[in-house]
Design a protein that fits this description.
The protein is an alpha/beta fold. It is built from 11 helices and 12 strands. It folds into 2 domains: 2-123 and 245-276, 3-Layer(aba) Sandwich (Rossmann fold); 129-242, Dihydrodipicolinate Reductase, domain 2 (2-Layer Sandwich). α4 (78-90) links the parallel β4 and β5. It is globular. The protein starts with a strand and ends in a 6-residue tail after the last helix. Bound molecules: NADP nicotinamide-adenine-dinucleotide phosphate. NADP nicotinamide-adenine-dinucleotide phosphate (NAP) binds at residues 7-8, 10-14, 33-37, 60, 75-78, 80, 84, 98-101, 124-127, 158, 248.
Amino acid sequence: MIRVAVAGAAGKMGREVVKAVVRAPDLTLVAAVGRHHGVGEDAGLLAGIGPIGVKVGSDLRQALSESQAQVCVDFTLPEAGAENGRTVLDAGVCLVMGTTGLSAAELAALDRLARERRVGGVVAPNFALGAILMMHFAAQAARVFPEVEIIEAHNPQKRDAPSGTARRTAELIARSRAESSRWAAAASGVNTSEPAPAGNSPARGLLVEGVPVHSLRLPGVVAHQEVVFGMEGQTLRLIHDSTDRSSFMPGVLLAIRRAPELKGLVTMEELLADVLRSPAAE
Ligand code: NAP
């Protein structure tokens, strides 16, 4: 049994994680932590699965040491994620970081701390397996299609924009472009460090790693992303929709199960590298 703590346990994602961990036969929920909402209440009642005897605390460090958690899952807020991550790794506990909006410098510092403390973890802006495939396919398509834009939609409560998934997709596309001589040849004359074409109007989206990203915030949406590639005479669209937060749970549970064997922080793409390797490349 892996002993799991959840930070942000009273939030939308945290409640879903509590439910998934309690239902998993090989995991046990030993601690739940919040900020204001839900503190002092039973985490199972908040998650809608009845009482489980784990009350939501407000002190992460104390909760980790008292519960002897082995893995802590964080779904909090951009301003809380980095500090929580430090607290978790400092305590020698593995980290599964789902909170988005952390800067590259904050993530790199967490990775260094994990290596110093000799613990591991997984960081992903999107744990939905379909979204990880979409990002992977986008990186592949970017080797062939020089022009691409991203449209993402989330609920209006989401604090960060563009989404972590869109940023990560743009990073993977940029890396793919840099590695691909075919793209460089096809795109000769296109300077991706320049502002978006069409007059650099805000309506043309925010440039992330040279990729224009358009962010929608609408009630009723959980998570949507469309990566649209264009080339003379053709369009290629990769679309992923999370219609329910349960979509993130298979990835979160996989990360919890694999975290204890890792050293340092890895991405979901790295965790799934064997599955994602193209048979055609072998
Ligand atoms: P949410 O409903 O607002 O929940 C966030 C929760 O975190 C709230 O209950 C909040 O408590 C709590 N919190 C804030 N600071 C805290 C701290 N220092 N320690 C412990 N708890 C704290 O948001 P959500 O929709 O669940 O999303 C949470 C995060 O996950 C966001 O960054 C979102 O972008 C991200 N997300 C990631 C994925 C993925 O697959 N990686 C998927 C969906 C969402 P109070 O309400 O009392 O302030």
